[in-house]
Amino acid sequence: MDVSVDLLISYAERIVLAIVFLVAGLYVIKWIAKLITGNMSKSKLDESLQSFLVSLIKVALQVLLIISVVSMLGVEMTAFIAVLAAASFAVGLALQGSLSNFAGGVLILLLKPFQTGDYIEAAGYAGTVKDIQVFYTMLDTPDNRKIVIPNGALSNNSVVNYSAYETRRIDFKLGVDYGNDINKVREVLQRIADEHPLIFDEPEPMIVVGEHGDHAVIIYYRVWCAATDYWPLYFELMEKVKVAFDNEGIIIPYPQMDVHMPSA
Description:
Elements: H1 2-41, H2 47-72, H3 77-94, H4 96-111, E1 119-122, E2 125-132, E3 136-140, E4 146-150, H5 151-155, E5 159-161, E6 167-176, H6 182-195, E7 206-212, E8 217-226, H7 230-248
Antiparallel strand pairs: 1-2, 1-5, 2-3, 3-4, 6-8, 7-8
């Protein structure tokens, strides 16, 4: 009976000490997280990356705290770590897809192939990046749809970032009739570029004969503008070119077939 009482008192002391250590440890971890958050807010790190790193540090410290508490209770650490490793392996197999997305999210947040507000094309979708989370990236499409893409797919496939640079080039392929004067076509297109305020003088617009098509001479018309002006300028030029060609008598041909009937 005396041995049982002594054993109970001994374990009670350990349990009380472990509880006190656990509470104090959680308080210290909370304080460390606030300190790290304050320091990161002064840096240039992305907000999503800051939140992720703070959460990762908190989880790591909490795991170390639990291992320390279990050790204080007298549990054999070798056996405990073996059980923990086996459990981690089983969870890893069950969550392979989620872990892939998690790793992809870490890579995106660290390497920054795109940022919030960029217009990208990836995984068969295109839209403006609304939010970058650890597991998923949210896109808003121009027609106001929300696309949720797993980060694993984004990190393992090609991504086109249309907002990466401040300038962009607009490319047109304009078909004109073989009977038109190429020099006149070039002068009309150059005049449009010179008069438009959104088109850059440098780099200079490029106006060249690019192809001899079946039904038309294909003119490559390429102009530079600010990335934010790309689509407004694109649609405006489509209309201006058509109106200018009509006014100057420049024919835009369409596919046709000449049929010759032999005389009887």
